[in-house]
């Protein structure tokens, strides 16, 4: 093996986990700086806008961390090296990266930021006018002052020859915050989180108190998507009810059959995915997007299914749903949802949706106004099923009602064709046996 | 659990391991009929026979060489070297044979050898019978070195050393042999590579080894009355050093005193301080301070000996120094 290839093998690189990925955030190093790792052992957890991913050591050796936790790193950049000698770790390890302050709850001197070397500090030389001569500060105090953005001139040292200790930094920091009466002044002092002992952020007169929660990459990405979607498209929502009495009956029978066959359960969502996909075959404008100055009519019908997570939302995709059987859709969706909740979803499973279905029925919502996902022209919101009574020719009649909400991009589709598409979905829900005519 | 003296805990560990594994045997000057120079092997010859408990001539290098051969061929010999100072006679066997055997045979030969020896001072044993020479051994890759600080460690670490497939030197302390403490009965084994927190505290970490653990605990007790809270760590093993436990403690205290009875110069504390200087510099709120013997032979004269070797007073002074002002 040549030296060059051995060198390359020893580098831990920020991987590209999807076509759109530009950067990833280092969530956690599983091993300390200089710690021993075996080839294939997990050394680091990273997070992209879509998933969290564990990175394994390319070979065995001592871990040299180059990027601290919380840093966003471009795809392809070297985030760590695996070295043959422990002594080599300190050469060039995690240096002077511009990082935000420690996250809430972290403490100085914890492993979370192993041995980060603070940027050089201008030393006050003797005769510089302050009469204190050369500045003395302990290593941990220096790191804390820099994390807090605290000017060293503001800190009174209590050690020998005026050496600044950790306690002095904490005292100065607290003093400065107490002095500040304006929130702007507080922010000017520090954008970093306070030491754990002082959280939550102190109350400033006339402003409500709050706790800080940093945005996770997933939350940041959701925020960007939602806002740009509302700003860049002309969205409106049509609402329509469907009588799903027959569909529910069909579902119950399919469910029994699946049980007999040992397959996964069939839900109304699975039936809807299939029906929507078939309806989209006849209404291609709803399976499209307006991009730049062209309309892209997608050839595939890939249905995204919004799946709630504890701290956000993922949309796994059923590709070519119109060509899949209900049993296939059910099995695929169950497997995707499990992978999504455990954070192990392959990045490609989240890309390529041409139409999205989102369901808030379980929470008791009838109708809502879903927001268009980027690159799609329509999204169907599914409400709850509830028992209703309607006045018919033969008197009052019980039926099961489902609320449907179709948001679409009016730049691309007008109200009338969109309504016809929605009516088609309603028709399929009310006449579910027409599914038999489809290829699957 | 019963109260046992340090020397009794050593005896119990040897006895239990000999019961457990017929490959365990004892070699050394006076370990047989006399029951050991300090009584650690008392009763074992009667119990296990002269075949497994062998008195040897006063020829340390030959005895350890014999034990290395026996270990290579499958026995688990435990050699007693009466005073640690006499290890100088054994260095070739330990350094060039025992430490290298496993490496040079590509792992084909195991070397389950234990060398028990002891150190100690404040008893006017003089320049040739009171040295703490563990740092010599820690400089050699392939040798493990543990220093039991009390009866529990004496039993638990010795049992682990006998079961280890590598050469382990167990440095006992004769001035602690009479110390009695509750020691767990039966199979009590301590890991060879892990330090223990003997007392929790928040202001200063005292990393100590061997008899200095006792002195550090006494110092911490005295300092507590003045409102100073010390965390006392028993390193237990001089090689490998458990840096992780010390680091974790430093995260809390940011200040470190290291205490051992060996000479400060080139001691185990020097390695620990240097390693933490590399790996934990930005946790430090004060310079790391070491407590150890002065760079001089240990005198016979009791007043001079007291002046040379460290004790709790030296530890208290070091704690005051790292907490200054």
TrEMBL record, chain A:
<dbReference type="Pfam" id="PF00364">
    <property type="entry name" value="Biotin_lipoyl"/>
</dbReference>
<keyword id="KW-0450">Lipoyl</keyword>
<keyword id="KW-0012">Acyltransferase</keyword>
<dbReference type="InterPro" id="IPR001078">
    <property type="entry name" value="2-oxoacid_DH_actylTfrase"/>
</dbReference>
<dbReference type="InterPro" id="IPR000089">
    <property type="entry name" value="Biotin_lipoyl"/>
</dbReference>
<dbReference type="InterPro" id="IPR003016">
    <property type="entry name" value="2-oxoA_DH_lipoyl-BS"/>
</dbReference>
<feature type="domain" description="Lipoyl-binding">
    <location>
        <begin position="9"/>
        <end position="83"/>
    </location>
</feature>
<dbReference type="InterPro" id="IPR036625">
    <property type="entry name" value="E3-bd_dom_sf"/>
</dbReference>
<keyword id="KW-0808">Transferase</keyword>
<dbReference type="GO" id="GO:0016407">
    <property type="term" value="F:acetyltransferase activity"/>
</dbReference>
<dbReference type="Pfam" id="PF00198">
    <property type="entry name" value="2-oxoacid_dh"/>
</dbReference>
<comment type="similarity">
    <text>Belongs to the 2-oxoacid dehydrogenase family.</text>
</comment>
<keyword id="KW-0670">Pyruvate</keyword>
<feature type="domain" description="Peripheral subunit-binding (PSBD)">
    <location>
        <begin position="136"/>
        <end position="173"/>
    </location>
</feature>
<feature type="region of interest" description="Disordered">
    <location>
        <begin position="96"/>
        <end position="135"/>
    </location>
</feature>
<dbReference type="Pfam" id="PF02817">
    <property type="entry name" value="E3_binding"/>
</dbReference>
<protein>
    <recommendedName>
        <fullName>Dihydrolipoamide acetyltransferase component of pyruvate dehydrogenase complex</fullName>
        <ecNumber>2.3.1.-</ecNumber>
    </recommendedName>
</protein>
<dbReference type="InterPro" id="IPR011053">
    <property type="entry name" value="Single_hybrid_motif"/>
</dbReference>
<dbReference type="InterPro" id="IPR023213">
    <property type="entry name" value="CAT-like_dom_sf"/>
</dbReference>
<dbReference type="GO" id="GO:0031405">
    <property type="term" value="F:lipoic acid binding"/>
</dbReference>
<dbReference type="GO" id="GO:0005737">
    <property type="term" value="C:cytoplasm"/>
</dbReference>
<dbReference type="InterPro" id="IPR050743">
    <property type="entry name" value="2-oxoacid_DH_E2_comp"/>
</dbReference>
From TrEMBL, chain B:
<keyword id="KW-0786">Thiamine pyrophosphate</keyword>
<dbReference type="InterPro" id="IPR029061">
    <property type="entry name" value="THDP-binding"/>
</dbReference>
<protein>
    <submittedName>
        <fullName>Pyruvate dehydrogenase subunit beta</fullName>
    </submittedName>
</protein>
<dbReference type="InterPro" id="IPR009014">
    <property type="entry name" value="Transketo_C/PFOR_II"/>
</dbReference>
<dbReference type="InterPro" id="IPR005475">
    <property type="entry name" value="Transketolase-like_Pyr-bd"/>
</dbReference>
<dbReference type="Pfam" id="PF02780">
    <property type="entry name" value="Transketolase_C"/>
</dbReference>
<dbReference type="InterPro" id="IPR033248">
    <property type="entry name" value="Transketolase_C"/>
</dbReference>
<feature type="domain" description="Transketolase-like pyrimidine-binding">
    <location>
        <begin position="4"/>
        <end position="179"/>
    </location>
</feature>
<dbReference type="Pfam" id="PF02779">
    <property type="entry name" value="Transket_pyr"/>
</dbReference>
<dbReference type="GO" id="GO:0016491">
    <property type="term" value="F:oxidoreductase activity"/>
</dbReference>
<keyword id="KW-0670">Pyruvate</keyword>
<keyword id="KW-0560">Oxidoreductase</keyword>
């Amino acid at each position: 093996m040549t030296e060059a290839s051995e060198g390359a093998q020893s580098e831990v690189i920020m991987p590209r986990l999807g076509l759109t990925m530009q950067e990833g955030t280092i969530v956690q190093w599983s091993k300390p700086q200089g710690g021993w790792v075996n080839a294939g052992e997990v050394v680091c957890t990273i997070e992209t806008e879509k998933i969290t991913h564990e990175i394994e050591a390319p070979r065995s050796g001592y871990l040299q961390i180059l990027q601290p936790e919380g840093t966003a790193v471009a795809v392809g950049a070297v985030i760590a090296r695996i070295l043959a000698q422990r002594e080599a770790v300190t050469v060039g390890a995690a240096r002077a990266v511009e990082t935000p302050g420690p996250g809430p709850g972290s403490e100085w001197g914890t492993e979370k930021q192993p041995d980060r070397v603070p940027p050089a500090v201008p030393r006050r030389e003797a005769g510089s006018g302050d009469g204190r001569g050369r500045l003395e500060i302990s290593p941990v105090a220096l790191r804390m002052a820099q994390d807090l953005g605290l000017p060293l001139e503001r800190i009174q040292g209590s050690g020998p020859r005026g050496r600044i200790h950790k306690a002095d930094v904490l005292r100065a920091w607290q003093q400065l915050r107490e002095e500040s009466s304006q929130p702007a002044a507080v922010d000017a002092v520090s954008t970093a989180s306070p030491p754990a002992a002082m959280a939550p952020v102190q109350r400033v007169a006339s402003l409500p108190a709050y706790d800080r929660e940093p945005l996770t990459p997933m939350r940041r990405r959701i925020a960007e998507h939602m806002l740009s979607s509302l700003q860049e498209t002309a969205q409106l929502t049509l609402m329509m009810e469907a009588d799903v009495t027959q569909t529910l009956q069909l579902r119950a029978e399919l469910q029994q059959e699946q049980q007999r066959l040992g397959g996964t359960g069939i839900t109304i969502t699975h039936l809807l995915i299939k029906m929507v996909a078939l309806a989209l075959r006849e209404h291609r404008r709803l399976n499209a997007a307006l991009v730049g100055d062209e309309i892209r009519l997608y050839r595939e019908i890939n249905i995204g299914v919004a799946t709630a997570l504890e701290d956000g939302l993922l949309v796994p995709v059923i590709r070519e749903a119109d060509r899949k059987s209900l049993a296939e859709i059910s099995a695929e969706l169950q497997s995707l949802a499990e992978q999504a909740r455990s954070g192990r979803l392959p990045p490609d499973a989240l890309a390529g949706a041409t139409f999205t279905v989102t369901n808030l029925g379980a929470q008791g919502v009838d109708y809502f106004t879903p927001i268009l996902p980027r690159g799609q022209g329509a999204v169907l919101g599914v409400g709850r099923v509830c028992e209703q009574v309607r006045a018919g020719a033969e008197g009052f009649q019980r039926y099961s009602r489902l609320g449907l909400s179709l948001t679409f991009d009016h730049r691309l589709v007008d109200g009338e064709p969109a309504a016809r598409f929605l009516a088609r979905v309603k028709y399929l829900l009310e006449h579910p046996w027409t599914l038999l005519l489809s290829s699957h | 659990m019963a109260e046992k003296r340090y020397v009794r805990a050593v005896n119990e560990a040897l006895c239990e391991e000999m019961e457990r594994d017929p490959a365990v045997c004892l070699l050394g000057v006076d370990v047989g009929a006399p029951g050991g120079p300090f009584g650690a092997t008392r009763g074992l010859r009667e119990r296990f026979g002269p075949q497994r408990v062998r008195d040897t001539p006063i020829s340390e290098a030959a005895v350890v060489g014999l034990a290395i051969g026996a270990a290579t061929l499958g026995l688990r010999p435990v050699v007693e070297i009466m005073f640690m100072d006499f290890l100088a006679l054994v260095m070739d066997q330990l350094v060039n044979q025992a430490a290298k055997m496993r490496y040079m045979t590509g792992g084909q030969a195991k070397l389950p050898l234990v060398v028990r020896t002891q150190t100690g001072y404040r008893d006017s044993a003089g320049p040739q019978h009171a040295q703490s020479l563990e740092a010599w051994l820690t400089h050699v890759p392939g040798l493990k070195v543990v220093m039991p600080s009390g009866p529990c460690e004496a039993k638990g670490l010795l049992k682990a050393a006998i079961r280890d497939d590598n050469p382990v030197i167990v440095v006992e302390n004769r001035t602690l042999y009479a110390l009695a403490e509750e020691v767990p009965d039966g199979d009590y084994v301590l890991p060879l590579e892990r330090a223990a927190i003997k007392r929790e505290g928040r202001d200063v970490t005292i990393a100590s080894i061997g008899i200095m653990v006792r002195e550090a605990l006494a110092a911490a007790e005295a300092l507590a009355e003045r409102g100073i809270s010390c965390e006392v760590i028993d390193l237990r093993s001089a090689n490998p050093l458990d840096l992780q436990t010390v680091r974790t403690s430093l995260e809390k205290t940011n200040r470190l005193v290291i205490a051992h009875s060996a000479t400060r110069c080139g001691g185990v504390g020097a390695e620990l301080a240097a390693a933490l200087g590399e790996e934990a510099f930005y946790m430090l709120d004060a310079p790391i301070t070491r407590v150890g013997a002065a760079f001089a032979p240990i005198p016979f004269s009791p007043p001079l000996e007291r002046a040379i070797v460290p004790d709790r007073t030296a530890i208290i002074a070091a704690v005051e120094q790292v907490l200054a002002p």
